[in-house]
Structures are given as structure tokens and as C-alpha cells.
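Reply to dn_fold:

You asked what the input looked like. This is it:
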Amino acid sequence: MAKLNKSGIVLITIVASLGGLLFGYDTAVISGAVGALENYFIGALETDKDLAIAAIFQFKVIISICVIALVILFSSFLLKFFSKSKAYLIIGLFVLIGGAVYYFQFLSLPGVLTENLKNSILGFMVSSALVGCIIGASLGDNVANSIGRRNGLLIAAMLFVLSAIGSAYPDTMNIFFGDSLSAFIVYRIIGGMGVGLASMLAPLYIAEMAPPKIRGKLVSFYQLAIVSGMMVVYFVNYFIVQGQTESWINTSGWRYMFLSEGIPATIFFLALLLVPKTPRFQVMKGNEKDALKVLTNLNGPDRAPGVLEEIKKSFGKKKAHWLYFGGTVVVIGLLLSIFQQFVGINVVLYYAPEIFRGMGMETDASILQTIIVGAINMIFTVVAISTVDKFGRKKLMMIGSAVMAISMIGLGFALYLETTGITALMFMLFYIAAFAMSWGPVVWVLLSEIFPNSIKGVMAVAVAVQWLANLLVSWTFPMMNNNSDLVAMFNNGFPYWIYGIMAILSGLFIWKFVPETKEKTLEEMENIWISK
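and this is what came back:
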């Protein structure tokens, strides 16, 4: 491939990867603000009983709306996997049993701010964007096939801008029924919808533009963009709080953290106007001339017609039932998403400053340590990008699982034995390095590769499940970490042991069930599942 063509592909990849940068920015911006948000919102509830009663009622309403939305979305997925009668039976049983548990264990609780409820509100406030991520990712397939990958990313960019302003000023931008805490949660959910759309569409856009030999490297750029966004916001947060009083951070500083996201979101929107729609989407819509033009620009005039014929052939097949290739590929995709989150990565990324503060560091120092975490994340993501097409996907994933398991179990024991400081920091950095060179970027590569074109919509389910797993982990962490009984027994070590066990299971899963996809075309991947 000519150098000019490769440069064009890389340029398009960088623009699409800005969606990943905003994904990283949006998910990590909260890390520097957790303490201030707890003080500003939760602290007010502790001192005002009437405000607490109203906030608890609104919290229950928001959670109920979110639960209903998620049940509808996942019900629509079940209808694509099973026959209507079987799907409705599963949905009915889930609603009946789940509804009863939800009512008696949550809705019927009195409006009293207990320790567990306070931790639950804090956990959901921090992780509320993930509800939007699930919704955005779930809609990703419909958006991709109706208005296209690029136009879907333009919508994501607009959602990012709206969320940035609304999250910064939930009191003055409160157009909803409820207090500013509820408005903040709603705006975070809106931003999450942008993240969810981007997480589905950006890797898909890149994978459809990239030649097979460098596809793994280019899709991994998406993960590099995610960690770059995290790194950028860690610096932004640090410069916002540097030299400022705790009082100023708690009242104004956190607002600037969220507002700053509007800048990269606007750049992303404008840059997207300069890139083409993918050839696969053009073929899907019958625009073969436009598809050939893009392919010629990227692959050269000699290769373009052949690539076009391959795409036409793959889309000549009807969209298959989602279980057409059996349940194996679907289960593998879902478990890749679940394990990527159950190893606990976003606990470290969302709560890093709070974890470091728990080790006795000041606000400035804890956010500075977070920058170190971000730097390690970025460096080892670059390692993954340079090795994913050379060593393959499986080898990197198994090495990553082993190091993550040792690191998380070690971190748990460091906290349990109260030998924090440099020991705990080193375990955390080893963990971040291992994730960054394996499960971080490689899962996105695998998700963009393993699903045949005729069931590509399953990727939306896998990404939605990933965000659901992220929500469960992020929401439950404060409940485990701040629970006075667990702290008395384990000195905050308990949650990290859970994540360490998950890392062990993730390695066994990769070793036993996940096929190697290195250098295979998207069309060749179909043959792997047909032969199984």
C-alpha cells in the first residue's frame, strides 16, 4: 500500500478515535470531582432532612426510569435471539422475579439516609453516565444502519457538548423536575449516551476503513485515544485544583472540570465533517460509486474494485438471525465485555484520587498520583498497539490477566495489612500496565472482528453489556469500600480480592474459548464460526 494511502487511513482513524478521547475524558473527569461532588451534593443531604427525603424520592424515580429503559432495551435484544414465545417467557419471568426483589429491597425502603443508601446515591451519581452508555450502545446498531457510522458520531459529539455544560451547571441548567442532584445525574446520563454511541460506532468505523494487516493496530488507536482522553483530563483536573482551597474546589472547581469537556467535543464535531462515510455503509445504502471513490482513495485504484466486490459479496447475504452461527460467538462476545469490566479497571480510573486520599495523601498529591496512573495507562496502550498485530490477541490477553490477578490480590493484601504507600502504588501501577497492554485495547479489536457481517448487530449487545458490567462494578465499589463492617474486617482490601479472582477467570476464559483473529479479514471470520 502506498504511503499516501496509509496516511489517509491513519488520518481518518485519528478523527474517529477522537470519539474514544471523549469517551476517556467523560469517564475520567468524574475522578477528580468525586470528593467535591460528595461534599456538595451528599453533604447537603446529611444536614437537611427535608432535602434528603426529597432527594431519596427523586433517586428512586430516576433509578426506576433507568431500570424500565434498560428492561425495554434488553427485551428488544432477547426478541432478536429467541422466538417471540420464548423471549416473552424469559422477559416475563425476569420482570416478575426482578420486580419483586426491586420493590422489596429498594422501592419500599423508608426515606431515611442510611449509610448504605448514602453510598448507593454516591455510587450512582459517579457511575450514572454508564446508564446512558448502555442506552447509547444499545441504539448503536440502529443508528449505524439508518444514518451511518459517521453521522452517528456527530450526534454523539452534540450529546457530549450538552452534557459538559449541563453537568457543570445543573442548578442553572435545571430544566427537569427535581433538585440539582437529579439534574446533574440526568446530564451525566445524556453524556453517557454520547459515550455509548461512540464506543459502538468509532471502532466499527475504523474496522470498516482499515486493511486487515493493520486493522488491529488501527482499532487499538481507539483505546489509545480513550487513555489519552483520561490523561488529558487528569492534567486538566490537576491544574484546576492546584493551589486552590478545598472550599473553592467543593463549590466551583468541579464545575470547571465538567465544563472543560466542551472543548474537545466541539473539535470532534468539526473534524467529523471532514471524513467520509464508510464503504460498507455506502454499499448497504446502494451508493456503490461513493463507496468505490472512498476505497480508491484509501486502497489505490488497483485494489479498490476487488475490495468493493468482497464487501458486496458479504452484504449480498441476508442479515442472519443473531444465533445463526450458534451461541458460541455471542457468548464469547458478551463474556469479553463482562470480564473487561469485572477485573475492576474503572474502579481504579473513577476512584483513583479517593483511593490515594484513603492512603493519607492530600488533594493535590492524590490527583498528581492519578496523572502517574494515566501515564502508565497510555505508555502500555502504545505497547499493545505495537504488538497486537505481531504477537496476536490471545497471548497479550492471557499475560494481562495473569499480571492483573497478581496485582489486584497483592493490592488487597497491602490494604488489609495496612502496608499502603509505595507498595500499594506499585501494585496499582502494575495492574494498570497489564490492563493497558491487554484487556483495554484488545477487547475492542476482538469485538470489531469476531462478529460476522450478517450478525454485526450483536456487537451493540456486547457493548451494552460491557457498560452494564461497568455500571455494576462502579456502583457497588463504594458500597463495599465504604461499608463499615467490611472495612473493620478487611481494611478496604475486600473489593480488590474480588477483582483479582475475576482476572484469574478472565485468563482461563481466553485460553479455553477465544479464537485468534490476527490477520484474518472480516469475511474470513465467518468461516471460523461456520466450521464450529
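The chain has 24 helices and no strands.
Hope that clears it up.
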